[in-house]
Each structure stands twice: as structure tokens, then as C-alpha cells.
Amino acid sequence: MTLDLDAEVARLREQVATLHGELVRYNLVAWTAGNVSARVPGRELMVIKPSGVSYDDLRPDNMIVCDLDGVVVDGDLSPSSDTAAHAYVYRAMPEVGGVVHTHSGYATAWAACGEAIPCNLTAQADEFGGEIPVGPFALIGGDDIGKGIVATLSGHRSPAVLMRNHGVFTIGRDARAAVKAAVMCEDVARTAHLARTLGTPVPMAQADIDSLYDRYQNVYGQSGP
Amino acid sequence: MTLDLDAEVARLREQVATLHGELVRYNLVAWTAGNVSARVPGRELMVIKPSGVSYDDLRPDNMIVCDLDGVVVDGDLSPSSDTAAHAYVYRAMPEVGGVVHTHSGYATAWAACGEAIPCNLTAQADEFGGEIPVGPFALIGGDDIGKGIVATLSGHRSPAVLMRNHGVFTIGRDARAAVKAAVMCEDVARTAHLARTLGTPVPMAQADIDSLYDRYQNVYGQSGP
Amino acid sequence: MTLDLDAEVARLREQVATLHGELVRYNLVAWTAGNVSARVPGRELMVIKPSGVSYDDLRPDNMIVCDLDGVVVDGDLSPSSDTAAHAYVYRAMPEVGGVVHTHSGYATAWAACGEAIPCNLTAQADEFGGEIPVGPFALIGGDDIGKGIVATLSGHRSPAVLMRNHGVFTIGRDARAAVKAAVMCEDVARTAHLARTLGTPVPMAQADIDSLYDRYQNVYGQSGP
Amino acid sequence: MTLDLDAEVARLREQVATLHGELVRYNLVAWTAGNVSARVPGRELMVIKPSGVSYDDLRPDNMIVCDLDGVVVDGDLSPSSDTAAHAYVYRAMPEVGGVVHTHSGYATAWAACGEAIPCNLTAQADEFGGEIPVGPFALIGGDDIGKGIVATLSGHRSPAVLMRNHGVFTIGRDARAAVKAAVMCEDVARTAHLARTLGTPVPMAQADIDSLYDRYQNVYGQSGP
Fold this sequence. Notes:
Chain A has a single domain (3-219), classed as Class II aldolase/adducin N-terminal domain (L-fuculose-1-phosphate Aldolase, 3-Layer(aba) Sandwich), CATH 3.40.225.10. Chain A has helices at 3-25, 83-92, 105-113, 122-128, 144-153, 175-198, 206-219, and strands spanning 34-40, 45-48, 64-67, 72-74, 98-102, 134-135, 160-163, 167-172. In chain A, helix 3 crosses helix 6 and helix 4 (122-128) packs across helix 7 (206-219). The model of chain A has no long low-confidence stretch (mean pLDDT 95). By secondary structure, chain A is an alpha+beta fold. In chain A, 43% of the residues lie in helices and 16% in strands. In chain A, strands 4-3-2-1-5-8-7-6 form an eight-stranded mixed β-sheet. Chains A, B, C, D: InterPro entries: Aldolase_class_II_sugar_metab, Aldolase_II/adducin_N, Aldolase_II/adducin_N_sf.
């Protein structure tokens, strides 16, 4: 590797290892069931969690570097069993810089029922631009999960897809954005579940959803340097 | 600024930064979605959270000082995207010294359904004096949210309003009281949700609600210095 | 105070202050809404939480010593607003050495519905010996709450009562036992709620409940020195 | 004991004490209601939690060593009141190296209803190979619980059984695997509960369940040294 690449990979090893702590903090994962990856910008490479390793034991140096076919380039352990899905997304969606997968409980309950989360909350309009869609059932082990994610999210505002009977995949311009989408997906899924079991959620007008989404994507937060 | 004002602003920067930790502790916020502000007593100024900054990174020196039109007076970052709503409340309700906004899940579920929380708990009678009301749906970006809060809470016992399809705003004589109202609003919303999904809550007599509210507002806690 | 009494009160100040941490750990309390007390054995005295003080700020030296009419004997702050209820229990039930009050969410949901928690769990049979009963609605400020607790729990196996529209009071031979009952009451109330919203809980035979209760009260844990 | 046995028992005392922390971390236990044991490989011995001791106070040196009839071989305290059930499992199932018992809330709610958890999630197919079965109601104190566990799990893919009106027992090749099964059982029970209260879970094809189970048992994680 060149020096520049080394520095970039080191930065992403640190970021990916640290971001798994957010999955734990927001209670999105049990045991080892959830993973974060980051694309190495401008390279056919990604940094991803090792398979079956406890979140307590994740450190920059045990993250795995793979190419975008999921072949390990640097790392002593096997990469996440979801590596093929992450890799497929990076190959098919060049604008994506981070991917997250969880089985977070509320979102996965919607996935188990095969129901998209309807948009009845301003927070959902802000972050997801409307409903959070359901993707197909797909077996692990080939490209089926990746294909289902890409087919569902391509051209969709939502950075999150509920894979049927399985769990959540989220994408972002970088790994941190994908983790934020995973956190907000569970938060929205929870509130939507609580509203459904409470009474009858009031629908929002599409024009209001559009207005909120447009504003949040362009105005919220600190403008970049 | 005068020395007195400097000291007062410094005190409020510390208080507002610290109080955000209570939103995290009581699980009222995900990622960066919630904010606290305090009026600078006797001045046309408020101290508020910066926009889109992680709760881990809040410190007294990155809080933002704005005037009551929401214009930044002191601070390097953009203020919370909810600044206009906070500012509107301070302009319209001179007795209010603190404002809090969250999307806490149970309260927001009631807001999504457009249902006021009925008062079936002594804790709700104590703190809210009856039902917790619903405010109108309003888009962010102008004074509509602020107007909705003020229209709903003016002359109402409750320091909390459930803004439809959105979340909770609470007010208090200072920022700590507004945070307490946000914590108790979610606690009451949760218990009321659990009661609704369990069976049929038993109504309380209005005279009992009135008696509890009167006592709690006048007797509870330590008498002032 | 005599030296012996001083030592005993010091021990109970430490114990009562520390046990409030268990209410926080098990998520039984929001803000300042919950309290623990201990009888001073052989004396007409009790140690109780001060009113409206944050759990973070409780220390042995700010606990309040009251007589069994609720009059402060030692302490600079006002005692818990529930002091009269604790005191009434100690006066009426000489075998009780500790009292706990919370608004823990699941148990309070049962209280809001005025429903006793039916005994469908071996853990409930062990600790409560059958259903957890509902006590009357009562206003704070006199002896009505205390009377309701005593009337409901006298001669009942359960150390916990669900006061209607209010919350939970538990008793024990000492403060630690009362705290354990409060923790187990919420745990059982939660599982019973989850079972009710899931399907149809299977009833247990009364003879099995009796057998479990008898064994747990006489065999479980380490035998005393 | 021989030196080798001493070293092995010391290792298991440490492991069993530490693994109880996972029950606390994943919120599977309240107060002292849950326990982990490990078989001493190649010996008629097991290491188990003492009865009624707080999780904060568990240390390697207060774990109890029993023979497989539950008789204490080494330890100053009484062993867990569930020791007979653990011992029965070790006697009847020689491939089992670890046993865990909890009353974790969601799983116990299914147990209270006497309902097996249907397999509508890939995570459940991976870990449990299909539904999580219900075992019989059984009183504590003899071999009835152990017999119920063994009768239900023998020849079943699932390492977890929901004992009716009681709670969960899980088994594994070692104590860590049994703890993982307990964590995943509650996670799956929770998501299945949330799906049931939300809508209608979509069934999975048996062939897909079989495929997922086969892959997870043989491919997931790091291959052994």
C-alpha cells in the first residue's frame, strides 16, 4: 500500500471500530449480530467488522480490509458473514461510502410483518423522506441480499431498507451517516410501533413530507468547512 | 457584555450543556434530536444547543447565545434548528425561563395519533394538572411551531405540549424545570400507553386532580432559601 | 441519642441512601419520584429520603430521621412527601422494617387500570404468593394512603400493593427486602403485561402457587448465621 | 484435587462468575433471579452460582463446585436453588457443557402463554433452527424441571426451552454458548412479540429455515484454532 492509502485505511479502521460502539449504545445489537463497513474512498476496498467477534473486543487493528468482491486483503480474521451484501452495495452504488446492518428489534418487527413504516412523524420525513421500504426475503451466502438492498434503495429517498424476515440495512455517504440512519430507523420504527399499538396515527400530507425532507437535507446541522 | 451579564451567561452555558445529559440519561433523544434552552433573565437573550452536534461533544463553550429573534450573538456554530420555536416562546411568554424539545418515543406516539394524554395517574395530576394537550401540526422554519406551542399552553396548567406528528415541547420557570417536565412527560406517556394496551384505565375525579395539582405545586420539595 | 442509637442510625442512613441506587438501576423511578425508608429497630423512629432531592445527590448525611408521626427528629431538609404513608405503615405493622414507594411503569399501568396482577409465573408465586393486589385510590396529605396500604396488605402474602391510579408500595422485614419486592414487582408486572398483550396466559393451580411460595420463603438463598 | 483439575476448576470459576455479567448487561435478570453453570470437562462436576447472592458480589472464589447430583464439593455457600435442574441436564446430555436459566421478560411472556416462538426471523433460524419450544410446567425441588428440559431439547435443534409459567433454560457446548443462546432467545422473543403486536408476521419456508440453520452452524464466526 502507498503511504496515503495506509493513512486512509488506518483512519477508517479507527472509525469503523468506534462506530460499532454506537450500535451498542443505542441497543441495536445483541451479542455479535450487527456490523458496520466503510468504503476506502477512490479504491476498490472496504473496511468491515470481523465475524463473530464481541463488540468489547473490536479495535482498529482487528478490523478487516476486503476488496469489493469480499476477498480479504488485510486482516487475520474472517470478515463479517454479511460482507458479500456490503460489497455488492459498494459495487452497485458508487455514491455510498458506508453500510450498516442490524437486527434492531422494532425495525425488525416491521420487517417480520413485511410492512413498510408509514411516514407519520416529522423526524421520519426529515431523515427518510417518506416511508421506510421493505426489501425482499433473501438467503445469506450469495448476492441475493445485496441485490435486494440495491433494488429497493436505488432511486428511493430512504437510506434504510427493512429486509423481510431479516433486519435492517442502511447506507450513507460515509460510515457515520449510515450509522445515524440505523439509529434513526430504529427510533422511528419504535415510535411508529408505539403509535400503532396506541391508536390511529394521523397521516401527514405528502407536500409536508416533501417540504420537511428538502429542508432537513439542505439546512440542518453545521455547514461543512 | 457587562461583567454581570458575562457571569450569568457563563452560568447558563454550563447549565444548558449539562442538562442535555439528562435527556440522554432518560432516553429521550436519539443521535442529536432534542435540545434545551434557557432565557438570560432580564435580557432579550437565550442560550441554546448548537445544531447537529453530538451530546457527547456539548460543552459550555460551544453553546450558542442568541437574541429572542434567534439571531446568533455569541457562538461559532449554527444554533439548533428549533431555535425559532424556542425564541417565539420566550417572546410570547415572559414567565418562561427554559424550553425543551424532544421526540421521546412514548409521548411522540401520542402526538402521532393526535391524542391528548388523559389524566389517570396521580403523578400526572401533580406535574401537569390534568391531560397533556395536543398542539397543531406545524412545519419547521418559521413561527408556526412557536405559535402552536404558545396557543396550546397559554392558560393551560400543563408545561408540556404534544405537537401533532412531531414531538414534545416543554416549558418551565428555568431550564431545569423544563427538563423535569420533559422527563415526567415521557414517564407519564409511557405508563399511560402501558395502561391503554393492558386494559381500561380508571378515570380520576376532576376534584382529585385539582387537589393533587394544588398540593404538588405548593408543598412538594424543599422550600426555597 | 445514645451511642448505640447513633451507630444504628448511621448504619441505616448509609443503607437507605445506597438502596435508592437500586431504584435507579432497575429503572423504577424518574427524576425524584420514589423513596425508601427504614425503621430504626426498637425505636419509634425511621430514616427516609428528603423530598425532591435528585438521586445523584443522596448521601447518608442528608437522609432524614423522623419519628413515627412523621415529625423530623434529625435533618436539615424536608422529608419525602410520602413520609406520612411510610409512618402509618410502621405504626400499624410492627413486623415491617422497610417501606418503598415507586411509580414504576408496568406496575403503575396495572394500578391505573385497577387490576390486580394475576399469578401466572413461578417467580410471582415465589415472591408474592399469588396475585399482587390493588389498594384504594387515596389522596396524599393525610393517613388515607397509609390506611389503604395497611388494609390491603394485612394478612396478605404479597409484600406489594398497587395503589389505584398511583403506584406501588412495598414492605419488608428491612429496607433491602422492601427494595427487592419493588424490583420484583416491576419485573413481574412487566412480564405479565407482555404475556397479556401477546396471548392468553395459562393459569397456575393454587396448590402449585402455595407449594412454590412455601418453598421460596423457607429454603431459597443462604441460611442466616 | 489434582493440579490439572485445580487449574480447570479455577478457569471455570472465573468464566462462570464473569458470564453472569452478560445476563446483567443484556437485562435478562432482576435481583438474583438467573444463573449460569459449567460442566468440568471429563469430570462428574459442575461450577454454579451461589443462591441468592447479588450479581455485584459474584467472584471466582464464591462460585460453588458440585457433583452431578448437586452435592456441594467445594464452596462455603449454598448453590443456586436451580442446581438440581442443571445437574439433571449434565447427567442426561453428555454433549452439554454449559446451562443457563433466566426469567428474561419477553421469553417468559411466551412461556406464560404456553406458546412456542414461531420462526419468522433469519436470526432465529440461524441460532435455533426453527421454533423455540415450550416445556412442561414443573415444580422446583426435584428432578421435574430437569426432566422437562431434557425431554423437550433432546433431538431438538433449539438450545433454548421455554418452561411453562416459569422461564428459559438454555444449553451449549460450554457456558459461553449457553449464555449466547439465552441472550439470543430473549432478543428473538422480543422481536417476535413486537411483530405479533404490530401485525401479521410473514411465515418463512421450512427449506429456508433449514438452509440458514445449516450455514450458521457450520460457517459463521472464526474457525477454531
